[in-house]
Inverse folding.
């Protein structure tokens, strides 16, 4: 069985969970290859022999790699669908809502239409990039602040006052756990209402997210879901996460074998 871990060079040099995963696989003699997309030789079709490739690319422009691998018949974790859907805040919002989760009031429209029609009760609000992780969010106090923004389309979300931190639900295969990440200091495990956990799981499943995380904040009237991330570094919080991923891979590979029969 050929297992690949595909991640960019920059990530390989950092504290990426894929580096920990590779070290764990080495310690358990699980054969695998780390694939740097920049160094694929001679071209990406040479990866068709892999049975499973865990993809952690993070940059949207390389999403096509997952799609291409799937078209070649390689089992990709997370799938192109999961990467694509979670990578777009507007689409994630829709799936989170359909899964029964509450999200902050959000509008997405052309700047012109927002300036004309936005309800002033939306403010203070956050302008977020539609794609991308952890950068480029801006807080705006009133519609006037949007006038000089150099954007044609604006994703605007009501700010939910909360001063303590973010709650994150992590999923690895069938294991789902939640943690509270305070603004400062170490995260700790928390128990969320069953209803929230069930809805988050419904959302992960709809996105086909196998290794992922959901960010939520607690407002005065309950939890608001903010976004879903593929393979967030925080999965390291889940106890025995490396073992859980390794077991999940073995299970996945066995299922591929059965499908072939
Ligand atoms: N509507 C909101 N109200 C209050 N805080 C928010 C809101 N949306 C995001 N935040 C804060 O900003 C952080 C980043 O937002 P998020 O939507 O998770 O985007 P990303 O992590 O991709 O930058 C969140 O973890 C949270 O602390
Ligand atoms: Mg986030």
């Amino acid at each position: 069985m050929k297992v690949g871990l595909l991640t960019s060079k920059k990530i390989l040099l950092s504290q990426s969970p894929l580096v920990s995963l590779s070290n764990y696989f080495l310690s358990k003699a699980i054969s695998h290859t780390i694939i740097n997309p920049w160094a694929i030789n001679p071209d990406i079709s040479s990866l068709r022999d892999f049975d499973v490739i865990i993809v952690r690319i993070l940059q949207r422009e390389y999403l096509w790699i997952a799609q291409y691998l799937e078209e070649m018949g390689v089992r990709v974790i997370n799938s192109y669908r999961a990467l694509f859907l979670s990578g777009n805040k507007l689409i994630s919002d829709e799936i989170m809502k359909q899964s029964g989760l509450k999200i902050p009031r959000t509008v997405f429209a052309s700047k012109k239409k927002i300036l004309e029609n936005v309800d002033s009760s939306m403010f203070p609000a956050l302008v977020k990039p539609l794609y991308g992780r952890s950068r480029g969010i801006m807080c705006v106090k009133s519609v006037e602040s949007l006038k000089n923004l150099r954007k044609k389309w604006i994703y605007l979300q009501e700010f939910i006052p909360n001063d303590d931190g973010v709650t994150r639900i992590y999923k690895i295969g069938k294991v789902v756990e939640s943690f509270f990440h305070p603004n400062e200091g170490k995260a700790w495990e928390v128990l969320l209402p069953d209803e929230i956990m069930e809805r988050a799981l419904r959302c992960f499943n709809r996105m086909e997210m196998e290794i992922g995380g959901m960010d939520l904040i607690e407002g005065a009237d309950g939890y608001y879901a903010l976004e879903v991330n593929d393979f967030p570094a925080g999965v390291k919080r889940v106890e025995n996460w490396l073992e859980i991923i390794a077991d999940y891979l073995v299970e996945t590979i066995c299922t591929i074998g059965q499908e072939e029969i």
Remarks:
- The two ends are 16 Å apart (CA to CA).
